[in-house]
């Protein structure tokens, strides 16, 4: 009987030591990560700060800026995101440190687009840098000795957006449709030499709708798949 008690105590002790070591290691690991992150609000387990971002995200993020400043961190699902606010902060990140902020998260749905090797959706790395160089050289050759069509299209689309916004006479409205159409029209113009034709092209409008549906639906899929991969 004594031997069984000694064995039982040894097993219990080993379990306690193992569990305690695991908890201490995880806390130490979290501490190393958290001490390098900007300040930010705490989120719920698994879902993070998502419930409060369900509606009026821009207002929620603006309020958080008042508390945590122009750079803060929050948890979206199982991912941690750093939120940038203010013109100077965003310009510093995207212009002066552009390559550092050019990465993409490893979302499962991105793998459906060219097997995750698309220049727009893959993370920064040697492959991305080579493809970016090829794309820039091709664009430079296309624009050589010509009036810059991208700048013209962007200027005209900006004017279109301003006129559309002013046409609402100061009343609240959802700019999503107008922004999607303008951004897509610039790409349409590069491909077909006239960005204004896109608004009357049925296939183009169908494509824009598909892009919108894709971006709206993949968010939930990414969250569920990431939860399954991380916690199950």
Automatic annotation (TrEMBL):
A Pfam family hit: p450
Membrane-spanning parts: 6-28
Keywords, alphabetical: Heme, Iron, Membrane, Metal-binding, Monooxygenase, Oxidoreductase, Transmembrane, Transmembrane helix
InterPro entries associated with the record: Cyt_P450, Cyt_P450_E_grp-I, Cyt_P450_sf
GO biological process terms on file: hormone biosynthetic process; progesterone metabolic process
Listed GO MF terms: heme binding; iron ion binding; steroid 17-alpha-monooxygenase activity
Family affiliation: Belongs to the cytochrome P450 family.
Name the UniProt record assigns to this protein: Cytochrome P450 1A2-like
Origin species: Lingula anatina
